[in-house]
Amino acid sequence: MRLAGVLLLASWSLIAIAYLRPPEYDEAYSIFLTAGDPRPAWPSSPFHPQDVRHFYAGRTSLPAIGQNLRAGDVHPPLYFWVLNLWRQDFGPGWFTARLLSVLLALATLATLAQAAKLAGAPVIPCLLITLFAYAFAYTSTIARNFALAQFLDTLGLTLTLATLKTGGWRLKTVAGLCFGAASFTNYLAIFTPLATLFWLTTRHASGRKPARLTTDHWPLTTSFLVFLPLDLYFFAAQHASRTGQFAAFRPVPALALIAKDSGAAIFGGLPLYAAPFTTPAAAALLIFFLACLPFTKPAALFTLTALATPAGLFLLGLMFNNTPIEIR
Q: Are 265 and 328 in contact (CB under 8 A)?
């Protein structure tokens, strides 16, 4: 009953945010791409909405979406394919497109509840902390690929936990497919399965028993790797399409951005809203966060998956000499 109440609260909250939040440029790209023209030649003079209806109400094919992404974007196609089918079935409206993300977010929360049960964590606090974290509310209410990637990674992680209790190659295969599909939704989602595989290979390692990828993990690993050629097919065509978008990599500023981004994922822009008391507000939130730490129960798997993306972003910046961290 309490779980149903939290999901009902989440439904009302996320739908309200999706309805009230102003539109963003990246969302317009999602709409235009799935309508057949990712960067339309918008009129420079006054026009009637009916004159540009085809820019957002048109239809296109899945191969055309893939080709447009390879030609001028930095994302894989799975979300846009799903969004294309969703808009064809439920209509071309902006709010309608956002409702796909809301639905995926609710599925994520339901999956997270099962993960909490499997891990022995308190279910309702886990769901409420997630729901009211800024990053979750933001990514769950915009027409972008984040919500689908989060759902697939969460489902893969939950199924991985389930396999520790039940075993079975079928469940492991599905977990790997979920992880692979997450990377085919957003390349950065790959850090979660990599951290999970690292944990699986090292959790029983000791001085006498080194870490190794046992045959128990092959169903998960193999099914996950199925998606990597598809990722590479798109990434190879896209990797140079946004040259100059990010500043050159510098370790200290990059670490500062990662720290700021991690704080914003939980608290959003609350310190900024407290101007001219930005510094005291940020300090108070940091103290609140640190005060909660003694009441947490660390788990190696969740610690690794939480740190995987910030560490991965830092390594990507080091490899490609840019700072791929944006705060919105």
A: no
Q: Which two tokens stand for residue 322?
A: 């840019």
CA–CA distance, 285 with 274 (Å, rounded to integer): 12
Per the structure, the complete domain to which residue 120 belongs is given by 2-40+51-203+213-242
Q: Are 195 and 308 in contact (CB under 8 A)?
A: yes
Handedness of CA 149, 152, 155, 159 (dihedral sign): negative
Q: Residue 319: pLDDT above 90?
A: no
- Could you count the other beta carbons within 10 Å of the beta carbon of residue 220? 29
Averaged over 266-280, what is the pLDDT? 81
The CA distance from 277 to 285, in Å, is 12
Cα separation, 219 vs 217, whole angstroms: 6
Contact between residue 15 and residue 133 where contact means Cβ atoms under 8 Å apart: no
Q: What is the mean pLDDT of the chain?
A: 88
- Model confidence pLDDT, tens digit, residues 213-263: 556 788 999 999 999 999 999 999 887 666 666 778 888 888 888 888 888
Contact 152, 179 (CB under 8 A): yes
Report how far residue 197's alpha carbon sits from residue 103's, in angstroms, rounded to the nearest whole number: 28
The length of the chain is 328
Structural domains in the chain (count): 1
CA–CA separation, 308 vs 261, rounded Å? 14
Residue 63 counted as domain residue? yes
- Residue 126's CB is within 10 A of a number of other CB atoms, namely 18
What's the pLDDT at 271? 78
Q: Look at residue 126 and tell me if it is in a domain.
A: yes
Token pair belonging to 135: 């990053």
Please list the alpha-helical segments (H only) found in 191-299: 191-202, 218-225, 228-238, 251-267, 270-273, 278-292
Instruction: Answer yes or no: is 292 within a domain.
Output: no
Specify if 171 maps to a domain: yes
